[in-house]
Specification:
Elements lengths: L5 H16 L9 H6 L5 H8 L1 H9 L10 E6 L2 E6 L2 E2 L1 H5 L12 E6 L5 E5 H17 L7 E5 L4 H13 L2 E4 L6 H11 L3 E5 L2 E3 L2 E3 L1 H9 L7 E5 L19 E3 H5 L11 E2 L3 E7 L7 E6 L1 H14 L7 E4 L6 H13 L3 E5 L10 H9 L3 E4 L1 H10 L2 H4 L8 E5 L5 H11 L6 E4 L33 E4 L5 E2 L2 E7 L14 H9 L6 E9 L5 E6 L3 E4 L2 E4 H9 L4 E11 L3 E10 L7 H14 L8 E4 L13 H8 L13 H15 L1
Parallel strand pairs: 4-17, 6-7, 6-8, 7-14, 8-11, 11-12, 16-17, 16-18, 18-19, 19-20, 29-30
Antiparallel strand pairs: 1-2, 3-13, 4-5, 9-10, 14-15, 21-22, 21-23, 23-24, 24-25, 26-27, 28-29
Bound molecules: adenosine-5'-monophosphate-propyl ester.
C-alpha cells in the first residue's frame, strides 16, 4: 500500500524532519494544573508494570451487567476484549448518572447555527433516548440490525446513536456533507434497514436539504424499510417542502416519538457485539466500513476522555467535530457522556454569521475544555487575533488538537491567543480505526513540544520501523502499533481479507497506521502524515482513488490522477490531472463541471481545488501513474527522478502547463 517511490517518500520526510528538528521550545504543565490533574505520573508506571491490569482497571469504571472472564483474546490480527462480559453503552452513558446529583445536570448544551438553543439534562436525555429506542423497535428494528444516521449536528444525532446502542442496533453515521451517492453506497454496504435523517440542517445560513439527498440515495437502497425524519426547525428548515414524505416508509421523528414510553430496557450486549460501523477512505475507490464493538471501545474512550481532557463534573467540554467523523463518536458522544460530562454541540460554521462565532460560544457557555482541528486553528490565525480578543475566554483551562499534524506556529498561536498562555495543549494522534486516542500528552504530566503528539497513552504500544519492518529507536520511519488495544477496529465490515491486507500485511505482526513519523531523542513522536494514497484535506480523510473514480465517471474523462498539494489552511488540497476523451474541448466550463461532478458524487469536501487537462499522464514503463511527480508539479517543486518514466517529456510539458495556468 506504500507509494512505489520509497525514495521520494523518504526525501519528503527528511525535509519535514529537518524543519521539526529545529523546534526547541518546551512547555511543562503548569504547576497548579499538575498538582490536581486526574492523570498522575503513576499511571504510566502502572500500565508499564501490567498493561492488561491497567485496562481491566479502566474497564471496571464502567457498569457491567455481567463481568468478563477473559481480558484479552489475541489471535493476530483479531482481538477480543473483555470476553464473556455484558454491558450496554447507552446505560453507561445515561442511566448510571440518573441516581445521583448528575440527574439534573446538563448532558448536552446545543446551539444551532441560526442561534436557536436547547439544553438537555441527563434526565431529559434518558427520556428522549428511551422514546427513540421504543420507536425504532416499533418500526421493527432489532438487535444486530444496521441503522444509517444522516443528520446535522443537532441533539437528535446523539439521541439516535444512543437509541441504537440501547436496543443493540448497529449505527452507521454518514457525515451530512456527503452526497446522496456516498450515502447510498454506505447504506448498501451495511444493508441498513432504517435511516434517520432530517428535513435539513444549517450551514453558513443555507439550508442543506438532507431529506432530498436521502430520497435520492434510498431510491437505490432496497434494504431500507423505514425513514425517520427529524424536523430541524418548524417554520425554518422544517418547512414540509424540504421533505416529501412517502406514506408507509417515512415518519416524522417527533410524531413517532410522542406517544412512546420513555422507558426502554437496555439490551444486555456482549462486549464484542458491534456498536457501530463508520466508513472511512482507504487506498482503493471503495470506503471501508470500520467495525467497532462494545466493551473495549467504551473502555478506551471513557478512559482517554477522563485522563487526556482531565474531565470533571463542572467542566463544559466542547469537541468541535461533527458526529459524522470518529472524533464526534468518541469525544462528542460516548467518551464524555460515559463520564457524566456536559458537552457543547454546535451545528454550524465557525465563521457564521461572523468569524468570532466559536469565541462567542466559548464565552456564552463558559467552555472549559476545547478540542478542535489544526485546519480550524490555521483559519483562526488567518482571520486575526481581534476575534478571540473580543471575547472572555478565561473559562478555558485545557486545549486539544486532532486530525492532522499541527505546525508549531499554529500550536504557539493557539496557546497564546486562545489559551491565554495558561492552558496546556494536548495534541492527540489517533484514527477512525483506533477508536480512541493513542498518542497524546497527559496534560498534568507531559512536557509538551509544539508539533509533537508526544508519547503513547498508558497501555498503548507504538514503535517506529524502517521500510523493512525493523524497529528504530529514533529517526524517521513508519508508525506501527505493537499490541492490540481495547478500542481497536475488529475488522472491515464484510471484508476481513481487506482488513488483514490493509493493516497487518505491510509489517507482519504489527498494525501499520499508514502514517510516517519521527521519533526524537526523548522518545517523542512527531507525526508527519499519510504515506499511502490517502489525503488529509482539512482534517478529513479522502482517498485519491475515490476522487479519481468520480472523475472518470464523467463522460468527458478518459483518465485521471489525483494528488494532494500543500495548502496553507487545509493542510492538503486536491489537485487533479485529467486526460479527456477524443472530441472534448479543454474548457474552463468543463473544469468547473468536473469539480461539481466530484462534489456531487462524493461530497463538497472532495471537490478538487485545481483541475489540469493534459494530453498524457506521466507513467512508468509498466503503466503506473507517477503520482509523486504530479505532486512535485502541483506544489511547484523541481521535478524528482524521472528516469523510470516511459516518456519523460510528458511530465516536463505538464509542469510548464501547470505553471502557465497559475500565473
Ligand atoms: O494521518 C493521521 C491524521 O489523521 C489520520 C486519521 O484520520 P481519521 O481516521 O479521519 O481520524 C481523524 C481523527 C482521529 C491519521 O492517520 N491524524 C490524526 N490525528 C493526528 C494526525 N496527524 C498528526 N497529528 C495528530 N494529532
Amino acid at each position: 500500500m506504500l507509494d512505489a517511490g520509497p525514495h521520494a517518500e523518504r526525501d519528503r520526510m527528511t525535509d519535514q524532519i529537518a524543519t521539526l528538528l529545529s523546534e526547541q521550545r518546551r512547555f511543562p504543565p503548569p504547576q497548579a494544573f499538575a498538582a490536581h490533574a486526574i492523570a498522575q505520573p503513576a499511571l504510566y508506571e502502572e500500565a508499564a508494570r501490567d498493561r492488561l491490569a491497567f485496562w481491566e482497571n479502566e474497564a471496571r469504571a464502567l457498569d457491567w451487567i455481567r463481568p468478563w472472564t477473559t481480558t484479552l483474546e489475541w489471535r493476530l490480527p483479531h482481538a477480543k476484549w473483555f470476553v464473556g462480559g455484558q454491558l450496554n453503552v447507552a446505560a453507561n452513558c445515561i442511566d448510571r448518572h440518573l441516581a445521583g446529583p448528575r440527574r439534573n445536570k446538563a448532558a448536552i448544551i446545543w446551539e444551532g447555527e441560526p442561534g436557536d438553543r436547547r439544553v438537555l439534562t441527563y434526565w431529559e436525555l434518558a427520556r428522549e433516548v428511551g422514546r427513540a429506542a421504543n420507536a425504532l423497535k416499533r418500526l421493527g428494528v432489532r438487535r444486530g440490525d444496521r441503522v444509517a444516521i444522516y443528520l446535522p449536528m443537532i441533539p437528535e444525532a446523539a439521541i439516535a446513536m444512543l437509541a441504537c446502542a440501547r436496543i443493540g442496533a448497529v449505527h452507521s453515521v454518514v457525515f451530512g456533507g456527503f452526497s446522496a451517492e456516498s450515502l447510498r453506497d454506505r447504506i448498501n454496504d451495511a444493508q441498513a434497514v432504517a435511516l434517520i435523517t432530517a428535513d435539513g440542517g444549517y450551514r453558513r445560513g443555507q439550508i442543506v436539504p438532507l431529506k432530498r439527498f436521502a430520497d435520492e440515495a434510498i431510491a437505490e437502497c432496497p434494504s431500507i424499510r423505514h425513514v425517520m425524519v427529524v424536523q430541524r426547525r418548524p417554520g425554518g428548515a422544517g418547512d414540509e417542502s424540504f421533505a416529501e414524505m412517502k406514506e408507509g416508509r417515512d415518519h416524522w421523528w417527533h410524531r413517532l416519538l410522542d406517544p412512546e414510553n420513555p422507558h426502554c430496557p437496555a439490551e444486555a450486549m456482549d462486549a464484542e457485539d458491534l456498536l457501530f460501523i463508520l466508513y472511512t477512505s482507504g487506498t482503493t475507490g471503495k470506503p471501508k466500513g470500520i467495525v467497532h464493538t462494545t466493551g473495549g471501545y467504551l473502555t478506551q474512550v471513557t478512559s482517554t476522555t477522563r485522563y487526556v481532557f482531565d474531565l470533571r463534573d463542572d467542566d463544559v467540554f466542547w469537541c468541535t467535530a461533527d458526529i459524522g467523523w470518529v472524533t464526534g463518536h468518541s469525544y462528542v458522544v460516548y467518551g464524555p457522556l460515559a463520564n457524566g460530562a456536559t458537552v457543547l454541540m454546535y451545528e454550524g460554521a465557525p465563521d457564521w454569521p461572523e468569524r468570532d462565532r466559536f469565541w462567542k460560544l466559548v464565552a456564552r457557555w463558559g467552555v472549559t475544555v476545547f478540542y478542535t482541528a489544526p485546519t480550524a486553528i490555521r483559519a483562526f490565525m488567518k482571520w486575526g487575533t481581534d476575534h478571540p480578543a473580543r471575547h472572555d475566554l478565561s473559562t478555558l483551562r485545557l486545549l486539544g488538537s486532532v486530525g492532522e499534524p499541527i505546525n508549531p506556529e499554529a500550536w504557539i498561536w493557539y496557546r497564546k491567543h486562545i489559551g491565554g498562555g495558561r492552558c496546556p495543549i494536548v495534541d492527540t494522534w489517533w484514527q477512525t480505526e483506533t477508536g480512541g486516542i493513542m498518542i497524546t500528552p497527559l496534560p498534568g504530566v507531559t512536557v509538551t513540544k509544539p508539533g509533537s503528539a508526544t508519547v503513547p497513552f498508558p497501555g498503548i504500544g507504538a514503535e517506529l520501523v524502517d521500510t523493512t519492518g525493523k524497529a528504530l529507536p529514533k529517526g524517521g520511519g513508519f508508525l506501527t502499533l505493537t499490541e492490540p488495544w481495547p478500542g481497536m477496529l475488529r475488522t472491515i465490515y464484510g471484508d476481513d481479507d481487506r482488513y488483514r491486507e490493509t493493516y497487518w500485511s505491510r509489517f507482519p505482526g504489527r498494525y501499520f497506521a499508514g502514517d510516517g513519523a519521527k521519533l526524537d531523542d526523548d522518545g517523542y513522536w512527531w507525526i508527519l502524515g499519510r504515506v499511502d494514497d490517502v489525503l488529509n484535506v482539512a482534517g478529513h480523510r479522502i482517498g485519491t482513488m475515490e476522487v479519481e473514480s468520480a472523475l472518470v465517471d464523467h463522460p468527458a474523462v478518459a483518465e485521471a490522477a489525483v494528488v494532494g498539494k500543500a495548502h496553507e489552511l487545509k493542510g492538503q488540497a486536491l489537485a487533479a490531472f485529467v486526460t479527456l476523451k477524443e472530441g472534448n474541448a479543454a474548457t474552463a466550463e468543463l473544469k468547473d463541471d468536473l469539480k461539481e461532478h466530484v462534489a456531487k458524487k462524493i461530497g463538497a469536501i472532495a471537490r478538487p481545488d485545481d483541475v489540469l487537462f493534459s494530453a498524457d499522464l506521466p507513467k512508468t514503463r509498466s503503466g503506473k501513474i507517477m503520482r509523486r511527480l504530479l505532486k512535485d508539479i502541483a506544489e511547484g517543486r523541481a521535478l524528482g527522478d524521472t528516469t523510470t518514466l516511459a516518456d519523460p517529456n510528458v511530465v516536463a510539458r505538464l509542469k510548464e502547463q501547470y505553471e502557465g495556468q497559475e500565473s
